Amino acid sequence: MAIGARRIAEGEETVRLIERQGGEAHFVETDVSVPEQVQALVQAAVDRWQRLDLAVNNAGIEGTPFVPVTDYSIDVWDQVIDVNLKGVFLAMKYEVPHLLKQPGSAIVNISSVAGLIGGVGGVAYHASKHGVIGLTKTVAMEYAAKGLRVNAVCPAVVRTAMAARFFKGLDDSVVDGFHPMGRTGTLEEVAAAVLWLCSPQSSFITGQALAVDGGFTAR
Predict the structure, then answer these.
(1) pLDDT tens-digit profile of 4-42?
(2) CA gap 156, 111 in Å, rounded
(3) I need a labelling partner for 200 at 20 to 30 A (CA). Which of 54, 159, 164, 173 fits?
(4) Which of 72, 94, 125, 143 is catalytic?
(5) What are the structural domains, with CATH classification, of the chain?
């Protein structure tokens, strides 16, 4: 498994965790908004394992939450779109040629419930996550006949450092209450959805945006 991220310490720790479980992993410092770095990450995976079977595109930043469009910083808009949307475009641009060489290959892009519905404030985040679903559907249609499946996973609130920043100042009970199931999701639940979409069990599924949201978008 090749892992690309900007945060070196976390990336190297992920490699250690995978190796501790008997797996094999390689970390490449990567800014997903820089084409040359994304291309180098994909090439590093191919060079090491001589193939690319699956890809999960997960990099994302939250931008400025709860700020109306009239007050939203143009610089922050550009940063969020560069990472959340351009990053997924670049990843698929360089992944697809290698994935097409392997039968049963698949891509899973991480969008959000913010890509399925609107919300007050955070225009760049919502726009970028809607864009990820558009990219997912388009690339899925472009390569469906060639056997490459492309899907998206759309989590609601999951307890991460980004969520903590996004909902800073709100009680946990308030955030839990956003979801009809009365709680936030877990990383393991999102990972299980990703693994399923990568597996042969989902072999007739492509171009879909799977909500993992405790009923958030079922209203």
Answers:
(1) 999 999 999 999 999 999 999 999 999 999 999 999 999
(2) 10
(3) 159
(4) 125
(5) 53-218 (3.40.50.720)
